[in-house]
Amino acid sequence: MKRAHCTGVDPTHLTVVVGDHIQSGDEGTEQIVKVAEIIPHKDFKMSTFLHDIALYRVKTPLNFSTPYIKPARIATAETKTTEDMVVCGWGAIRENAQGSDVLLKVGVKLREDSVCEKAYQPTPLKYAAKGQICVGAGGKDSCQGDSGGPLHTGKNTGDYTVVGIVSYGIGCASWEYPGVYTKISAYLDWIEKNTNGVAVKGG
């Protein structure tokens, strides 16, 4: 799963790299597979970033028998998102900086839906609590280059469940403009329909 707002490319020109940690080096843990198809949500709108979710279908199966690559559990409606969560990515560590060469993670906190609704109401971007999650306090959040990355629970328990996808924000880690994440549990029916139930039942 990825965000939909960067999917307007020919999938035959894309590859997916999994098991990677340091982008500049070959660690021997990576698997590289070609993309067969990109399935963006049919209601995605670039003007508002609503329904910012897409599925990537790869040409060959991934090997999950290694310790470095495992399928992710995805959130259901019952998954709690009130605990501290973690966002991962190779994005910048501050606004307008270069992306990181090493995979980074940071603990982030859930914000009230009303905070994001108020923050983004004057902008063309829209926040809809039904399908989005409001996350991040000042100084800790995703940044440029992290779009499409996972937001997951388990910071304190190690029981990782992916609950969101990095979608948008203004600036980086701003108290005034929290990060907005696509809420995976709101799209379970759509995911199941487009994966023949494999992603939902297998997660």
Helix/strand layout:
Layout: E1 15-18, E2 31-40, E3 54-58, E4 85-89, E5 104-108, H1 113-120, E6 132-135, E7 150-152, E8 162-168, E9 179-183, H2 188-195, H3 198-202
Antiparallel strand pairs: 1-2, 2-3, 4-5, 4-7, 6-9, 7-8, 8-9
Global outline:
globular
The number of distinct β-strands equals 9
Instruction: Bin the strand percentage.
Output: 15-25%
What Rg is obtained from the alpha carbons, in whole angstroms? 16 Å
Q: Regarding CATH, which class of the largest domain?
A: Mainly Beta
Domain module count = 2
* Full CATH superfamily name of the largest domain: Trypsin-like serine proteases
The overall pLDDT, averaged over residues, is 89
**Structural class by secondary-structure content:** alpha+beta
Biggest sheet record: 6 strands, antiparallel
CATH fold descriptor of the largest domain: Thrombin, subunit H
Query: What is the distance, rounded to the nearest whole angstrom, between the alpha carbons of the first and last residues?
Result: 13 Å
Oligomer: single chain
Descriptive report:
The protein has 3 helices and 9 strands. It is globular and about 45 Å long. It has 2 domains: 11-71 and 187-202, Trypsin-like serine proteases (Thrombin, subunit H, Beta Barrel), CATH 2.40.10.10; 85-185, Thrombin, subunit H. The model has no long low-confidence stretch (mean pLDDT 89). With 203 residues, it is an alpha+beta fold. The protein has a 6-stranded antiparallel beta sheet with strand order 5-4-7-8-9-6. Strands 1-2-3 form a 3-stranded antiparallel beta sheet, with no helix packed on it. Helix content is 10%, strand content 24%.
